[in-house]
Amino acid sequence: MTLPAGASVLLTDLYQLTMLQGYFDQGMEETAVFDFFVRRLPPERNFLVAAGLETVLEFLEGLRFTDGELGWIRDSGRFSDDFTGWLAGLRFTGDVHALPEGTIFFAGEPVLRVTAPLPQAQLVESRLINLLHFQILVASKAVRCRLAAPDALLVDFGLRRAHGAEAGLLAARAAYLAGLDGTSNVLAAPVYGIPVFGTMAHSFIEAHDDELEAFARFARAQPDNVVLLIDTYDTEAGARKVVELAPRLARQGIHVKAVRIDSGDLAAHARRVREILDAGGLHDTGIFASGNLDEHELRRLRQAGAPIGGFGVGTRLTTSSDVPYLDCAYKLAEYAGRPRRKRSEGKATWPGRKQVFREYGASGRVEADTLGLEDEDLPGEPLLVPVMQGGRRLHPPETLDAVRARLEQNLERLPAPLRGLEPAARPGVNISPALARLAATLDGTPRPEKSGPGDTKS
Amino acid sequence: MTLPAGASVLLTDLYQLTMLQGYFDQGMEETAVFDFFVRRLPPERNFLVAAGLETVLEFLEGLRFTDGELGWIRDSGRFSDDFTGWLAGLRFTGDVHALPEGTIFFAGEPVLRVTAPLPQAQLVESRLINLLHFQILVASKAVRCRLAAPDALLVDFGLRRAHGAEAGLLAARAAYLAGLDGTSNVLAAPVYGIPVFGTMAHSFIEAHDDELEAFARFARAQPDNVVLLIDTYDTEAGARKVVELAPRLARQGIHVKAVRIDSGDLAAHARRVREILDAGGLHDTGIFASGNLDEHELRRLRQAGAPIGGFGVGTRLTTSSDVPYLDCAYKLAEYAGRPRRKRSEGKATWPGRKQVFREYGASGRVEADTLGLEDEDLPGEPLLVPVMQGGRRLHPPETLDAVRARLEQNLERLPAPLRGLEPAARPGVNISPALARLAATLDGTPRPEKSGPGDTKS
């Protein structure tokens, strides 16, 4: 079986289809507005990074039921034939507004808004959350790794323990757009044009009877990319073998670009290995480290002055292990011209078509965001922009390099404490008076403006 | 783009290809033996559940490079033309031994062993780990949910916050084989034959001007599956509307199967809702709950006597949020007839072709496992069985129901404390004297038998 997951419109929750049957029966096809947002920021994240928009737009453009999928729906006995026939013609014809990828955002701010006939806007919920949630999760972790080691080579090594195939691929994408230099995942090159990096595993060394011979053979097989893994048996002994081998390779025009250490006390080993390499004249041979790294470990190694120029960051990045999920949602804000909200305990939502207005202080740094109604005249830069109209993109896909540049600019405008790894006071997300009034009107009772849902404040 | 992730052999780490180029150059195609195992169990897990074998066998059977993939490899400029040509003919022709899915296992025990020409056994590493790691992770979490609520209806609701499409699909599979009743993920039905469940979202209620009218319409659209979500505005008021509506529906032959609560204090709401339903004569209408559930919350609700018959378990299950990854590896144990091991600090491995022998006490409960050499004559049940020979399966795929039955049997034979949610003393994993001697011989120095790698003991 080749897993059809990413491609199938059936990768959705059953209740989307049962609700669609209900909407179909009642002819409820008027325009609905849904927001995707993160309810609360975890204490481990000072900000989040918008990511995944491009993959969502691809999903919306390609949305349709194949004959096979319609066959399953028909055979399930859960739905009417009329409804199944109608599904056959279903396409996404709506509008999308979104924060461009690489935009920094906070709790309660819409990252993406869908405006479409109710059944379409409803049907896309599960996959849209699935795509945005994970890429935001990884991008928001990856940017912390970059901030912890601004000038190091950082490579995503997380494929093997990412949660499935698509997680491995989308994590490479999210990590790269958030500032990493590339990935070990080959598929990310043809699919997303991301630089790929790779050296050797311990098994390559072990399959040879002699470590030095393994080094020599690898160097000849990959003469332009000689990074030798030296910790299979004894790290410092491995480094001495590299020194022994280097002149032989040099005569063949081969340069040992770096050695890799993957176990033990990385800082201590790196220092001893640096001495061995320097004493052997290999000043240009760098040290690359991997093994259970994350932003805190990177910072520790940098602060310890470990002579390591590059890092493979794996499992903890692609599983976002300290924060493996975000409290995010995709919620109805308007239907048939009327604003809507839910008031479930701890999960109330803001109604209407909203905009995020970002204000900068005299220093150029973000001072505060205001969540208001789209047509309000509020100070600040409106962050949500139209990206799809009538089911068609308004612009060609952005390059990941453009996204990286946007994030860099966003980081420059972020108050310095938020760029640190420790929890810092986030800029407030204010609720505009008009939005607060609208919510109160819908509730049927006047309500004080400062009791807002979620993490936001008014 | 339809994500080709699961289907592409390029979903691998670049170093697999660079190593293969090295093996190719040197003609290193002799037989290699690799083990997949989990180095250490996290304190939050008393045991792990083997899962993912079937998807690995599918992957191995289908392994080949397409013209497009070969084109990328050729154009990358990293590999020789001879090598690329040789890749075109590469298939998996090896043998696989494995723990059958649903088998309970512990640290250091091989879950799967690949015996194949070195390049093949090497190339499959990244994807093989990617498939096994995640399914073991979710199955080992799901079984804890089942143990916490043995007689409740338990449904996987985790697609939206699973890490990508494949995670959503494979989590449904792993959760079902570990004892859940089904999933909300529609695709799991046609792909894996897993029962799907679904009701309605808050947006369905909100899109109507009147909650009772929304209930009525949903019931008529899905008359055989009426589960009404009652917490959009006020949970108890919602329950009273269900009581009001039920006689009208009954006259149309429609039964309200259950109500769903998704917010607030689930136990308190469930008690009040139960009273309202009972007072209204709806004794047969059940209560289904969801919202940030995991095994601990399930146990708390059961212990509190909350009148809830079914649960949707979502994000915390499909991200295995308390343990988002396992420390697992795929390591060379033999090449060209010679046992191999790495001795990297904290990551040393056991050499040779191994078997896990499980001994049961007089009570029929697992007493101890012994990791020994395959050809040793040791007491206990050998757990690793041959599943693939020469690249072909030895048996047709097992049904997930057969896997569920095996896990149930395994659970019955597990010491009772291990079936609890709190950390308990795990049975020891002994190292056979012959295996310890082999490792010592390879190290070139006699070593005491009790200093073994990883979590195991001798």
Brief rundown of the structure:
The first copy, chain A, is an alpha/beta fold. Helices cover 38% and strands 19% of the residues of chain A.
Describe it for me?
The first copy, chain A, has 458 residues and is an alpha/beta fold. Chain A has 2 domains: 5-138 and 324-443, nicotinate phosphoribosyltransferase (Alpha-Beta Barrel); 148-318, Alpha-Beta Barrel (TIM Barrel), CATH 3.20.20.70. Helix content of chain A is 38%, strand content 19%. The first copy, chain A, is built from 16 helices and 19 strands. In chain A, the strands form 4 sheets. In chain A, strands 13-12-1-5-3-17-18 form a 7-stranded antiparallel beta sheet. In chain A, strands 7-6-11-10-9-8 form a 6-stranded parallel beta sheet. In chain A, helix 3 (67-75) runs antiparallel to helix 4. Chain A is globular and about 80 Å long. In chain A, 57% of the residues are buried. The interface between A and B is large, with 116 and 116 residues.
Please render the helix and strand layout as text.
2 copies of one chain form a homodimer.
Chain A: H1 14-26, E1 31-40, E2 48-49, H2 53-61, H3 67-75, H4 81-88, E3 95-98, E4 104-105, E5 112-117, H5 118-123, H6 125-148, E6 153-156, H7 165-177, E7 182-183, H8 188-192, H9 202-207, H10 211-221, E8 226-229, H11 235-251, E9 256-261, H12 266-279, E10 286-290, H13 295-303, E11 310-313, H14 315-318, E12 327-335, E13 338-339, E14 354-360, E15 366-373, E16 381-382, E17 385-389, E18 392-393, H15 400-412, E19 429-431, H16 433-443
Parallel strand pairs in A: 6-7, 6-11, 8-9, 9-10, 10-11, 15-19
Antiparallel strand pairs in A: 1-5, 1-12, 2-4, 3-5, 3-17, 12-13, 14-15, 14-16, 17-18
